[in-house]
C-alpha cells in the first residue's frame, strides 16, 4: 500500500470513509456557537444524537463504502473513540466530543504525507485518535509515508472572539464581520481544519475563516515550501468554515464556485491567466439542511471526484447532478443526505489515502 495524493481529481484508489457511531450534537463552546446557524434546531440541545439517526447515517456510509469498493477502490474506516466522554485539558472543558463522520476535516493528505490538522472546535480536539490505528498501519506499510501532527492548540478563551458568543448576532452583522475578516478565531495560536484546504497539484488554496486563521495558513505555507499556498477569503458566507462547499476543483481547467460566496479577484485572475474555467455551481435542491445539521444547503456541491471524469453527487441534489452531467462528467448518485448532520457531504466524509498522479503544475502562470 502507498500514501500519496496531490489533487482532488486524480484517480482515487484508496480512501477513508467516516462512521456515524456515537455522533454528537456538540455542547455550546465558542467555535461551535459561531458556526451553528442562529435559527438552527441544534441551538439549545446537545449530547448523543438519536440512535435511529446514527443507524441510518451508518447504513448510508456503509453503502457508500461498498459502492467505492465495487469500483475497485480500497476503503478504510476509522475506529470511533468514546465520543460521549467529555474532555478536560489544562485549558478547557468540553461536555461532549463530536464524532468521526468527517475525516476530511481532520486529515490533510498532500503527496506522501497526511497532516493531522490542529482543529478549532474544542469538541474535536481528540478526534484524530479515531484515525490513529489507520495512520499507524500506513506508517508500517509504506516506508515513504510521512505522518505529521500539526501543533496542538490550547484553545483557551483567548483563541476566540467573545462577540461571537451572542446567540442573536443577525446574518447582516455576521456578513459585515466576515467581510472585514472578523472571524470567531483570533490569531492567538496556529489553527486550521484540513477541510479548509483544496489541492491542485503544486497549488494549495486555503480558506481564511472561522476554522482557519492567518497563523494556520502561515504554518501550512512554511510546512509545504514546494507548494504555492494561496489564502482565500469568501465574504458572502456568514458562517465561513471549510472550503469544500465554496470552491470545488473538478478536473484540470475546471472549478466550481459557489455563486453566493464570490471568488476573490486574485484567484479569479489566477484561473483566468491559466485558462481555467470557473463555473458557478447549480443551486441546491433543498431550501434547508436536514434536522440537527450545522452545515449549509451548499453541501449540494460537496462532491467527491473518483477521477477527472467521474463524480459522486448526493442523490437528491438533482440540480448539481444535472449541471455536472451537462459538463460531461459521469455522475454517480450516492444517497447521503440523512448523514449530513454528522459532519457533511460526500467530500467531508472521505479522506484521500492514494490517488494515482503526481505534483503537476496546473497553474504555472502567476
Ligand atoms: N463542512 C462543510 C460545511 C460548509 C458549509 O456549511 O457550507
Instruction: Kindly report the spatial arrangement of strands forming the biggest sheet.
Output: 4-1-19
Helix vs. strand class: alpha/beta
Low-confidence stretches: none
SSE pattern: EEHEHEEEHEEHEHEEHEEEHEEEHEE
Q: How many structural domains can be distinguished in the coordinates?
A: 1
CATH topology: L-arginine/glycine Amidinotransferase, Chain A
CATH class: Alpha Beta
In total, the number of strands is 19
What is the CA–CA distance across the termini?
Answer: 36 Å
Biggest sheet details: 3 strands, mixed
Plain-language structure description:
- With 366 residues, the protein is α/β, with parallel strands linked by helices.
- It has one domain (12-355): L-arginine/glycine Amidinotransferase, Chain A (5-stranded Propeller), CATH 3.75.10.10.
- The chain has 8 helices and 19 strands.
- The model has no long low-confidence stretch (mean pLDDT 97).
- Residues 195, 241-242, 244-245, 295-296, 298, 344, 348 line the site of gamma-amino-butanoic acid.
